[in-house]
Amino acid sequence: MKKEDVKTEAEKNNELNPEVDSHQAEASETETQKALDPLEELQEHNTKLKNEYLYLRAEFDNFRKNSIKERSELIKYGPERMVSSLLDVVDIFEKALSSDVNSDNLESFVEGVKMTSTELNKTLEKFGVKPVDSLKQAFDPNLHEAIGSEESSEVEPGFITQVFKKPYKFHDKVIRHGQVVISKAPSNESADKEK
After folding, report:
1. Is 134 helix (H, G, I), strand (E, B) or coil?
2. What share of residues in the chain are helix, strand, coil (percent, to 5)?
3. Is 150 strand, coil or helix?
4. Running DSSP on this structure, what letter comes out for residue 37?
5. pTM higher than 0.90, yes or no?
6. In the CATH scheme, what is the code of domain 130-195?
7. pLDDT tens across 98-143, in order?
8. Every domain of the chain and the residues it spans
9. Strands, sheet with 129-131, edge to edge from the N-terminal-most edge strand
């Protein structure tokens, strides 16, 4: 007998039942696919997450660039409304300066300057800039800068007797400290002279 003529029992069974062999092959392929499917699923999931990350990163980068642009434009053009309102006051000043001032129109010129000053203060106040009354008020180092002191019997010591520059606030923030003179108690020599 030749080797080719000798068939194993399994081969004889396969010849008799060819469906069993194909089922085994399909089962083997399915097991291989199942083994590969989780890996493919993870790769697909990884790719999906990577794409989402790249998309979000690009969105954030665009947001950051737009924020920087908006902030710089706000800084550059923020005071536009205030400047526009102040230009009206400048126009009034220019009209006043272009007129010839003489003894006949001096009173109306002074009145015009007072009105212009009032208009300027209204404009500043409209945008949150307000002067802080300081005369005869207690000295506050958060608002005032003392440039001197003087003896006074009319004003309590530590209170303001003169204001050289008014302090101003922009909403709640001090934007300019006032320059003031503070009262101090009269010395004994001064008190004796007054008696």
Report:
1. coil
2. 60, 15, 25
3. strand
4. H
5. no
6. 2.30.22.10
7. 888 888 888 888 888 888 889 999 999 999 999 999 888 999 999 9
8. 22-74, 79-127, 130-195
9. 129-131, 168-170, 173-176
